[in-house]
Amino acid sequence: MPDRLFARTYHQQTKYHPSSIGAGHQIDWENPPEQFKEYAGAPKFDLRPYLPNAETETWQALPALNDPDGTFSLPQLSKLLFATNGITAVMLQGGQKHYFRAAPSAGALYPTDLYLAVRGHADLPDGIFYYHAREHTLLEVYPRGLGPEGDELFRKLAAACFDDRAVASASVAVIATAVFWRSAWRYGARAYRRCLLDSGHVIGNFDIIAPRLGIACTIVGGFVDSEVAALLAIPEAREGVLGVLPLHDLDDRDDINPGPSARASSSTEPKPEADEILSIHTAGAIRRKDAPAPGAANDDDLLPSDKYAFAPGVKLKPSDEDLNDQIEIAILRRRSTRVFTGEPLKLTELADMLAFAYRPDLRLPPEAGPVYFDKSLLETFVVVNAVEGVAPGVYHFAPNFMELLTVRKGPVRREIYHLALGQELARDAGAVLIHTADLDAATRRYGSRAYRYLHLDAGHLGQRLNVAAIRINAGVSGIGGFFDDEVNELLNIPEKELCVYITCLGRAAN
Questions:
Q1: In angstroms, rounded to a whole number, what is the distance separating the alpha carbons of residues 437 and 196?
Q2: Are residues 272 and 322 in the same domain?
Q3: DSSP 60-109
Q4: Domain-located, residue 437
């Protein structure tokens, strides 16, 4: 089977259908997954003392962000990790503690783990560290002296990333992985989609918070999977590497000169695995022996293309409010809305949230623009249930022009309620955003690895919408479960287009 066909096969196999939604995967309620790894006897570096004591404390007022030698201080790393994947709330239910994080996760299962590669740090030894979110602590992955360190570590990491210049010149790099079982326990084979979306949420937080801490954060999606996994000492059958994020001082961003964010998967035909999740992840892997040349860099593809010839609709004009102001507080306060009131959103509120997610103004400085793998592959549709000044219906969002183009007029609450698996969130939201993609076009560019990029980028966009909604006191909730084919019917798009993610925006009842 050609590599790029694995993505199509997996997507077809994991679609939800009304006739079979309750069949198949059975949840083992007696065997829930662990959300945190333990490294017995590993040295610990406590990051808790460096957190703000309260929301009102200004983060920039804490100790100096950078060490004199140019590496990052523990206060800076503490805030960065906490605001991206840290524990922001604890709920006691049934005698058990339930932990909630800075980024949303389907079923609160949190498959995303973060590791740090460090060299030349004033307070940390060279090596690989696991971020233990519950303890807000860094744990050394290797016993001292047994793993790669310093320049050797970054030489190997950069080599695995095809000598990416941003990786090679970094002193700190974050590596994001997904532990498949944490989501598969509940969602079965479709869990790979959830893992990617959830990791995209975390990456979105990095993109939002890093500039606030004086950090330039780039994203590398092209790497030899097995080589990065070996550096982290993780079992590839249970955990996959999804992204490498080298960190630099924001003042040095013009000198970073990173390589392409995305690369195609290997061209050989991998042997299918019995495990569907492992099959799609392996199909999207890059292998050293037959790694393809990098595809065209996507620097010119900062915005999705306007490929649809829909009728003119509604121009969007954002307000003058700077959503970046106090945005870290919005991240810490973020919770998924459980119930919407059905009351309308203001048109400027919808415009503000879309503008924050897409940043179509190319005059903005680089640190204000999100860094995606290849956002040009995604399209965004907006189902309007209740937005002041906009007639109910289905619209296509053209970010280049900040305009909603008319796809279909008339109320569609009943249809969106059905295709969202009967979730009242979709019915009662003021607006429902649907991200779609042409999978054939994506896999022609990147092979089956495109499936990763599509969902990671959609999760990234979804997180920016999440944080923007909280920032303006609106409600928000993502939906990863839907009747796939019914989405295409609603949007009037061909079968080759796939629904990647749905985000509901509206007035929260709680």
A1: 15
A2: no
A3: GGSS-SB-TTSSBPHHHHHHHHHHHH-EEEEEEETTEEEEEESS--GGG-
A4: yes
> What is the SS3 assignment for 130?
strand
- pLDDT tens digits, 212-224: 888 989 999 999 9
The answer on 172 and 276 residing in a single domain is yes
The one-character DSSP state at 48 is: G
Residue whose structure tokens are 């061909």: 494
Q: What is the pTM of this model?
A: 0.93
431 Cα distance to chain centroid:
21
The token pair at 456 is 């990671």
Shared domain for 374 and 275, answered yes or no, is no
**What SS3 class is residue 448?**
helix
Alpha carbon distance, N-terminus to C-terminus of the chain: 49
Q: State the Cα angle at 14 between 12 and 16, rounded to 5°.
A: 100
Q: Which residues of the chain carry a pLDDT beneath 50? A: 1-3, 56, 60-70, 296-305
Element (H or E) spanning 278, and its range?
Answer: helix 276-283
Q: Which domain holds residue 133?
A: 3-12+34-261+263-290
Give a yes or no: residue 25 inside a domain: no
Q: Do 42 and 163 fall into the same domain?
A: yes
- From the number of C-beta atoms within 10 Å of its C-beta (0-12, 13-18, 19+), residue 180 rates as buried
Q: Which structure tokens are listed for 411?
A: 């109320």
Distance separating alpha carbons of residues 206 and 131, to the nearest angstrom: 15
Q: What burial class does residue 320 get, using C-beta atoms within 10 Å of its C-beta: 0-12 exposed, 13-18 middle, 19+ buried? A: exposed
Coil vs helix vs strand at 196: helix
Q: Is residue 19 part of a domain?
A: no
- HSE-CB for 368 with a 13 A CA cutoff: 13
| Number of structural domains found in the chain | 2
CB atoms within 10 A of CB 331: 24
